[in-house]
Fold Pyocin-S2.
Amino acid sequence: MGSDIESLPIPEEKDFRDYILVFPANLGIKPIYVMFNTPRNQPGVVTGRGQKVEGNWLNLAGQDMGASIPSQIADKLRGRTFNNFDDFRRAFWKEVGNDPELSK
């Protein structure tokens, strides 16, 4: 008994967020539509308390887990809804710039 192998041209991959997952026919599993979302592009509400920071708090940004969110900034942003991470980032740095201690 032989087997037929059909090779179809593979389409050029444009984006890896949207696929139809097709299983081998003998498994009896229907195709599944799969969509991946990037959390950075999703809306969200700010939570968390931040941490008390002192001195040059940004020195830790490139180390281990990075710099903590200063508690005074977390207090100002907590509960606010942002359309995406870029909107949050703009608001974060605006608040840092408005804080006399952090903007030194």
The longest helix spans residues 85-98. Helices lie at 71-77, 85-98.
